[in-house]
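Section 5.1 Outputs to date
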Amino acid sequence: MPLSEILNNPPANFSEAAVIVVGIIGAILLFYSIFLDKERRRDAVSLIGSLGLFVYSLSVGNGLLTAAFAIYGLGNLIELILIATGKHQHVCFDCEEKKN
């Protein structure tokens, strides 16, 4: 639902409004996760954000977005599990640049 449609025709019931709020919070969390330094925290916030956007895309009925956020969330969940079990190997491509 575009912003202009939300402003002109507000949600009819609480569940529609709640789904919109969950989607907005999910988008904000996904954006915020970009700036986090700790990888575990970044993955957790990304997972919560993608779940919020997944719920919103389900309610809108957009299959492409639903699949995209489901796959993105699954990737974050797998990485969180790998970090928690100690099997995650961090790869640093610019480590030499950070040392200098």
